Description:
TIM Barrel, binds zinc ion, 12 helices, nine-stranded mixed β-sheet
Amino acid sequence: MTEKTDPILIKGASLLGERTADVLVVDGVVAEIGTPDAAGARVVDADGLVLLPGLVDLHTHLREPGREDAETILTGSRAAAVGGYTAVLAMANTNPVTDTAEAAERVLDLGRQAGLVDVQPVGAVTKGLAGEELAEIGLMARSRAAVRVFSDDGRCVHNARVMRRALEYVKAFGGVVSQHAQDPDLAGPASCCHEGELSGRLGLPGWPGVAEEVIVARDVMLARHTGSRVHVAHASTAGTVEVLRWAKAQGIAVTAEVTPHHLLLTTDLLAGYDPTFKVNPPLRPAEDVEALRGALADGTIDAVATDHAPHARHDKEHAFVDAAFGMLGLETALGVVATVMVESGRMGWGDLARVMSTRPAQIAGLADHGRPLAVGEPAHLTLVDPAAAVVVDRDSSVSLSRNNPWHGRSLSAAVHATLLRGVPTVLEGKLA
Ligand SMILES: [Zn+2]
């Protein structure tokens, strides 16, 4: 499906940081690469900039329907575009929950109306996220929304029988269950941070890394047993990395994502009791952060996903124990990954494209996204200035919320432009 779009010449971009070429985009697709004759095309000067396939986020909370005071599909789409994304998966834990075909189609349609990024709904695994009865998985899969990723995110599918059935069910249409791995019996309702020496000293009730690891270990065995695919959302511990490494070596169909915040922020930040740093899974010690970086670089962890979790002030500005879990992520993800993984020399731009575009699109079954930079491919493109140094200012965010853990931090690299099907959604770092 191609639509008429004005021709755009992206001039002098470095493709994946590897070779310099001009890229001509016509009617939503990459028409020519090299030194095309592009008389009449709008020119985007990309000298010194790196061209990537449009980013894909496996894990976004857009809050609509139900909490439009925190974010809407439109404002979240703006944040995604500014962050260099061309597709996001919208988690199901809205109100009402996305657990029917109608609910999934509504999210899809609101995303299309916003028109800034492809909003692909995630379907709930269980009705109302209650963990008991399977949601309308088949109907959601066969709906116009063609749901392929199912998750009770925010909650863990903790009943092994229910998880087994869900894995068997999604297998029938190439779907995947994305698990928020957290044993509720090991992470009590009052828990608010990582359990360790620091939580003891601060007097904050915590939960241990093993609460995640036991579910990951169980789920990879269920994936093996059912021959189905499981995806580990927001992997956060060194123990989870060990299980993933083992499971992948066995040929089990498991994939995993890590968030930008778990790649950089550590549990020490809790010392100020600032609820901006309250998140689930919690910030972990430096040893875990290092294990996650290594696993992302070597492919044990497949993808970076934001877990963008906007919250209204009145839900976040509380004593640490009472505040809502979650932090913003869409606008800063690329900068964090560039800073931690690329600037440090652990990954190249091609690797960043793999973990932020190609693999997420494959995991989600989004055939049009995460494609190579090649003639004939859909022009979902992100142009990055690798030399930029940006001090994050929460008040310049286009998200409705302000729970931004990166405020005041300097990040390297910045999104210069984003194109969705050949149409600029962002130019010069601003919404087009
Ligand atoms: Zn989660």
